[in-house]
Amino acid sequence: MFKPLLIQTALKAGVVAFAMNSLAQADTIRFAHVDPDDWQSSKKGAAAQMFKNIVESETDHTVDIYPAGSLGDEGELVQQAMDGMTQVVMVSGAMSSVCPAAGVLDIPYMFESPLVAWEVLDGDFGDALAEHCLEQTGLRTLGYGETGVRHFTNSEREIRTPADMEGLKFRVQDIPLYVEMVEGLGGEPTPIAWSELPTALSTGVVDGQENPVGTIYNNNLHELQEYMTLDGHVYAADFLVINNDYYNGLSEADQAVIERAGVIAGNMGRSIQQFTTAQGLKAVQEEGMQVYRPTPEELEQFREQAQPPVIEWLTDDLGSDAEWIERLQEAVATATE
């Protein structure tokens, strides 16, 4: 009586094994991200095109790119990569939802410049974080890109110190870390969906928001805001990851090409992000936005008020992974020096 059941179970196991083997040997690599496809203005779009060109020119694989969230939002893309439905994805904040230690990169005022962040991510800390996330998720980090350095804008007054933020309502992502940061600085955090931000700014539901310069300019947010403060409160990294089961099924030669393509693609994304930042910063000023760059002393005031509450929240949230906070602090100190 158990024979049919045993045969059925064996057949199911065989189907799963066949599917996994087919995934590992697939000639087509699916690469998904949520940004536009245009490589000249989109950091993820540029990274994807670079990855595709290298892999297709040096292996027998083809790379199909799915941009602009065509396969889902970042959370969905990460899950697809973990499940093996999509081989390669490039995401930012969603990585911390499956590998919480990645969230330490969002500690405000941690990196004094992108150069310091690159030194940290391309060094021992970045390697260790990648290995940790691989163990946690089954996703191998091929390279680190950059989604931008975030700054505050508002329509009420110039912000030079945290005292200038008091009483102002700022749209933030619905992420506790960002809520803690704005509260620590004296502002009033208001979680609002990205799609609703323009309306919230134009109707006065919020006074300001925070985003990278390129994002602010490319989405015309500067037309709804008069002031920008280049405080650089959060450096946001992109994670270019591949399903590790798929990776392990490749030949050593193909693995080497894909690893190199991932590093170069991440650097390409960084370059385009830096380009759009410089381009956007020039443009918003030419179009009348008032831009203020805080002094080192003023930035220290921001750091002293924002970091403690965020680190306290993160320590509780990470639990046993809280050691990554100190590891990052040490890596940043070494890189900065």
TrEMBL record:
It comes from the Bacteria. Residues 1-26 form the signal peptide. Keywords: Receptor, Signal. The keyword Secreted does not apply. GO terms for cellular component: outer membrane-bounded periplasmic space. GO terms for molecular function: carbohydrate binding. The keyword Signal applies. GO terms for biological process: transmembrane transport. PANTHER family: 2,3-DIKETO-L-GULONATE-BINDING PERIPLASMIC PROTEIN YIAO (PTHR33376:SF18), PTHR33376. This is Tripartite ATP-independent transporter solute receptor, DctP family. It comes from Billgrantia gudaonensis.
